From TrEMBL:
Low complexity composition-biased segments: 57-66
Stated name of the protein: ATP-dependent Clp protease proteolytic subunit
Any one Pfam family match given in the protein's UniProt record, by short name: CLP_protease
Keyword Phosphoprotein: no
Domain of life: Bacteria
Amino acid sequence: MKGLRFFAAMLAAAALAPFMHGQDAAETASAAVPVEKAAADVPAESAAAPEAEKAPEALPAASDASNASVVPAAPAAAPAAMPSDGDLTENQKKQLRISVLKARQARVNAEIALGKARLAEKLAPQKEERARLEAETSLRAARTTARLAEVESAKKKLDAELARDKARNDLELFEKRSKVSEAELDLKISRLEQEMQLARFSQGIEQVKAAEALRGIVVSDAAAAPAYRKDPLENGKLYISDRRIEFNGPVTPELAEHVVGRIYFYNNQSAEYPIFIVIDNSPGGSVAAGYQIMKAMESSKAPVYVVVKSYAASMAAMITTFAERSFCYGNTVLLQHQPSSGMKGNLTQMREGLDSVTRWTRNINDQLAKKMGMTYEEYVAEMYKHDSRGDWSEFGDGAQRWKWVTDVVDAMEETSIVRKNDGDKPAAAVPGSVREYKFDERGKPYVELPTLPAGDMWMIYDPANLYRVGI
């Protein structure tokens, strides 16, 4: 920058030299000061383009910056040709001032261009960095916008799922409340039915007492206050209290109603001491009736034990096996087999009947097989190993080994009843039992079984065809 200023000063000095006429340097410098002041008062617009073109002719030494080294030699030769100050006309003076101003303007323009070039060079990295940052900012803004759109979409989806789940939960809650209301209504109806059933049981108990009196069974003096045992088995002897239910003949809905009613009755008396279902002889019978008895045994607060004195087959054997404890003599016989059905009707009806038999069989026999420690298929295979017809019978010790009974006893003692000697007075039937024999056209005796409700079936062992359904 200092070099440029020096060069411009030399140009001005060379331009003034022809007009100075030998004046010394001090006078030239003093004359240049008012010229510079005057140049400062001239506006930049006065340096028009045509006058700028004349500047090189007036200052031939300033046309090339590379000749700056020879400029100092000009003042030495100037005194001979430089006119005196008095020789300059006013017009020449003006032209001189204009030339000086143009030279200064050219210098200023050159400095400005140089400054702009240097500034542009300095600002280029910043501009490039700014452009890069602006591009990155735009990219980030685009990514942020896309991410916000994804988040908004996810939020809308989540809101929709929440609304759907809320609607579903509200519906489930409504359904549960409806079910609770239905359950409460069913409970009220069930209580009314139980109260009615208890009333019938009370009436039945009176009938049982009257029937026992007719059969000559009375409560002895010693049994007026019987000693109940929580464990009725002692030294191989079973003690049966008056909390006993007689169970004989085929299992029918009437017999099931009698047995279930007595279980409820004894539970209401005491839930501490066991109840005894005593089977002298039963070939089995209705699956639904037997299932009703098993569920009453299962739900009883007092333990319900089954005693088989002589024979229990099919559904009666099932009831014995599912008891919490069961007792029999060593020569008592228990028999298990698959249910059979004399289905008739068209093919669709027979298929429906087969489906019903299969479902009942699996529901009950699966549990029996599990208690025996095997699968249903293994249980059926074992059944036919023992008998080609599948009628698997065992004496007491074998029944105990296969877990059909829990205990084999040597003796049983009925602690609460004695029988009067009333001669040939016929014994009255236990309510629900079937003991009336009929004879067919060939004179063969049989017992007529009641017709079962829809969906039920007989599970009974009857090789002699003694029990028949409506002939």
